[in-house]
């Protein structure tokens, strides 16, 4: 998968992990924040790595879903 992504970009020699583009989105409401957070949490599920977002070890879905602060500590306030 990473090799395929690397082949798509002329400035990448072997493998690419992060996407090339940077398209900032203004978070102007709680609804927009929740939508973006849900999108981020669902990425490993959509990619087929896990079936539940909380199963992705480094996802903040663990914090929001089960208040698990063992891997990543975030301030939910």
Structure commentary:
With 77 residues, the chain is mainly alpha-helical. The chain has one domain. Helices cover 38% and strands 0% of the residues. It is built from 3 helices and no strands. The protein is globular. The termini are far apart.
- What is the rounded distance between the termini? 37 Å
Strand and helix order: HHH
Q: How many strand segments?
A: 0
Count of DSSP-assigned helices: 3
Q: What is the secondary structure topology, with strand pairs?
A:
Layout: H1 2-7, H2 30-46, H3 61-66
Q: Quick summary of this structure?
A:
This protein has 77 residues and is mainly alpha-helical.
Features:
single chain, 77 residues, 3 helices, mainly alpha, 0% strand
């Amino acid at each position: 998968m990473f090799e395929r992504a690397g082949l798509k970009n002329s400035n990448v020699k072997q493998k690419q992990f992060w996407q090339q583009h940077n398209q900032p989105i203004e978070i102007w409401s709680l609804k927009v924040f929740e939508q973006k957070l849900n999108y981020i949490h669902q990425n490993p599920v959509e990619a087929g790595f896990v079936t539940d977002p909380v199963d992705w070890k480094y996802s903040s879905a663990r914090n929001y879903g089960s208040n698990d602060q063992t891997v990543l500590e975030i301030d939910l306030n």
